[in-house]
C-alpha cells in the first residue's frame, strides 16, 4: 500500500500542509542561489576542469552534459519533490514514505545516513576551506608587509589549520543561525553572483597570457577519439557528485520551497546553473594550466595527462602565480578567494540538514542545534588534524562513497512508495500542465528503475 492511498479519497495534494512556522524561501531567485550554492562546490571549480583536461576536453564536456540530464536531474527532482511533499527534513520525509513497520524504520535509517554524510562532509570541508583562505590571504599579508602573519600562513601546521578551520566553522554556524531567509538565502544571493563574477574576471585576465588560447582550444574542441567507457563513467560520477545529491540538502531545500513553484522548471534551472559554473570553471582552469606550462611549471606528462590532479590546487597554481609578478599575486587572491566562496556555499546546506532535523523535533532551538552540530563537526575536524594521514582521506572516501547509495535509495523510495498520483498532485501545484509533458511521461518510471541502476554503476565504479 502506497502512502498516497491515505489521501486520495479526500483529494488532497500533499502529505501535509506546510507547518505554520516553517520557513520558506522568499523568492525563486533566492531558492536558485541557495540550491546552486549547495550544488556548486570544489567539484565544479576544480574536479570538473581536471577531469576534462584528462579526458579529451570538449568530448568530456559534451558527455558530462548528457549524463547530467539523464542521471543527476531525475535524482535531483526526486529529492526536491520528496522535500516539498513531506514538508520536513530527510529523516521524517523518508519515514513518512515508509509508512509503518520495517519500511518506515529503514527510511528513517536512510535519512540518518544522509545526515551523517552531511556532518562528515563538514569535518573535512572546514579544513580545506581553511587552506583556501590561507592561500588567499598570503599575498595580501606580503603586500601589507605583515611578515609574521605571512610566515604563519605560509608555514602551515596543526596550529594554523585548526584556527582557520575554527573560523570557517564559525562563519558557517553564524549564517545558519540566522535562518533560511536572513542567513542562507541572503548570503548565497550575495556569494553566488560574486563567485561567478570573480571567475569571469579571472578568465579575461588568464586569456591574455601566452598559452591560454591553446588550452581554450583543447577545452572547447572535442576529441571524440577519447570517448570510451571510462570517460562516460567519469562524466556520470562527476554529474552526480557535483549536485550534492545524497546528503539530504535538496530534500530540506525542497521543503522550504513555495507550493506555487514549478518543480521541474526550478530543478532544471538549478541543474543549468550547476553545469554553467562547471563550464565557466573549465574556461578558467584549463587555459591556466597551459599558461603554467608555458612559464615552466610541470603540469602535463608525456602522454598529455595531468601529472597529478590532487596536487595542482596547492602546488601548480601557486607556482604559476608566483611567476607572473604583481598580476599573479592579484590572481592568486581572487582564485583562492573564489574557491573559498564555493566551499562555504556548500557548507551552509551541509549544516542546515542536521540542524533542521533537530529543530523539527522541538527538543532543541535552532540556535542550540546549530551550535551543537557545528561543535560536533569541528570536533571531527580536530580529530582529523591530529590523525591527518590516517583519517583525512578515509573520511572523504566514506562521505563520497555513501552519497550515491543514499541517492539511489531516495529514488527507490520516491519511485515505489510515493504513488504515481501523489507525485502528480504534488507537481501539479506549480505546474498544472505537467501531465501533458514529456517529463511526466518518463520521470516516474525513470526514478523507479533506470536512475537507481545508473547510480549503482557509478557507485561500483567509484
UniProtKB/TrEMBL annotation:
TM helices/strands, residue ranges: 29-46, 58-76, 109-133, 162-180, 192-219, 239-258, 270-290, 333-351, 371-388, 400-418, 438-460
- CDD domains per UniProt: SLC6sbd_Tyt1-Like
Task: List the membrane topology term(s).
Answer: Multi-pass membrane protein
Principal location class: membrane
Matching InterPro entries:
Na/ntran_symport, SNS_sf, YocR/YhdH-like
Q: Which PROSITE patterns match?
A: NA_NEUROTRAN_SYMP_3
Q: Which SUPFAM superfamilies match?
A: SNF-like
Keywords, A to Z, come to: Membrane, Transmembrane, Transmembrane helix, Transport
Q: Which GO terms describe its cellular component?
A: membrane
Matches recorded under PANTHER family: TRANSPORTER
Q: Which NCBIfam families does the annotation name?
A: Na_transp
Q: Give the protein name, as stated in the record.
A: Sodium-dependent transporter
Q: Which organism is it from?
A: Bisbaumannia pacifica
Amino acid at each position: 500500500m502506497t502512502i498516497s492511498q491515505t489521501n486520495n479519497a479526500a483529494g488532497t495534494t500533499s502529505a501535509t500542509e506546510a507547518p505554520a512556522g516553517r520557513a520558506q524561501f522568499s523568492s525563486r531567485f533566492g531558492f536558485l542561489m541557495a540550491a546552486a550554492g549547495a550544488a556548486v562546490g570544489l567539484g565544479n571549480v576544480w574536479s570538473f576542469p581536471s577531469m576534462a583536461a584528462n579526458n579529451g576536453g570538449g568530448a568530456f564536456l559534451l558527455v558530462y552534459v548528457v549524463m547530467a540530464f539523464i542521471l543527476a536531474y531525475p535524482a535531483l527532482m526526486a529529492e526536491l519533490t520528496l522535500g516539498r511533499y513531506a514538508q520536513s527534513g530527510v529523516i521524517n520525509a523518508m519515514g513518512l514514505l515508509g509508512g509503518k513497520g520495517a519500511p518506515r524504520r529503514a527510511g528513517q535509517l536512510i535519512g540518518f545516513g544522509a545526515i551523517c554524510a552531511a556532518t562528515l562532509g563538514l569535518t573535512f570541508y572546514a579544513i580545506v576551506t581553511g587552506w583556501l583562505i590561507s592561500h588567499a590571504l598570503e599575498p595580501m599579508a606580503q603586500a601589507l608587509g605583515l611578515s609574521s602573519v605571512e610566515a604563519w600562513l605560509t608555514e602551515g601546521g596543526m596550529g594554523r589549520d585548526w584556527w582557520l578551520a575554527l573560523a570557517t566553522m564559525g562563519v558557517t554556524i553564524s549564517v545558519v543561525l540566522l535562518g533560511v531567509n536572513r542567513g542562507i538565502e541572503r548570503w548565497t544571493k550575495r556569494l553566488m553572483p560574486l563567485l561567478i563574477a570573480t571567475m569571469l574576471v579571472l578568465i579575461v585576465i588568464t586569456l591574455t597570457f601566452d598559452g591560454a588560447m591553446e588550452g581554450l582550444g583543447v577545452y572547447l574542441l572535442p576529441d571524440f577519439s577519447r570517448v570510451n567507457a571510462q570517460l562516460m563513467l567519469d562524466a556520470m560520477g562527476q554529474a552526480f557528485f557535483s549536485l550534492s545529491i545524497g546528503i539530504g540538502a535538496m530534500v530540506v531545500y525542497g521543503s522550504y520551497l513555495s507550493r506555487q513553484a514549478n518543480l521541474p522548471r526550478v530543478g532544471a534551472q538549478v541543474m543549468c546553473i550547476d553545469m554553467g559554473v562547471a563550464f565557466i570553471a573549465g574556461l578558467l582552469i584549463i587555459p591556466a594550466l597551459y599558461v603554467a606550462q608555458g612559464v615552466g611549471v610541470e603540469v602535463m606528462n608525456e602522454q598529455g595527462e595531468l601529472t597529478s590532479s590532487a596536487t595542482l590546487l596547492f602546488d601548480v597554481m601557486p607556482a604559476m602565480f608566483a611567476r607572473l609578478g604583481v598580476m599573479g599575486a592579484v590572481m592568486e587572491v581572487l582564485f583562492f578567494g573564489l574557491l573559498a566562496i564555493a566551499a562555504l556555499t556548500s557548507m551552509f546546506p551541509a549544516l542546515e540538514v542536521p540542524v533542521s532535523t533537530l529543530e523539527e523535533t522541538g527538543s532543541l532551538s535552532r540556535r542550540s542545534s546549530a551550535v551543537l552540530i557545528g561543535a560536533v563537526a569541528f570536533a571531527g575536524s580536530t580529530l582529523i588534524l591530529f590523525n591527518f594521514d590516517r583519517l583525512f582521506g578515509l573520511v572523504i572516501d566514506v562521505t563520497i562513497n555513501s552519497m550515491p547509495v543514499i541517492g539511489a535509495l531516495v529514488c527507490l523510495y520516491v519511485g515505489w512508495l510515493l504513488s504515481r498520483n501523489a507525485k502528480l498532485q504534488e507537481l501539479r501545484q506549480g505546474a498544472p500542465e505537467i501531465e501533458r509533458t514529456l517529463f511526466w511521461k518518463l520521470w516516474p518510471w525513470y526514478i523507479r528503475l533506470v536512475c537507481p541502476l545508473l547510480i549503482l554503476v557509478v557507485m561500483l565504479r567509484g
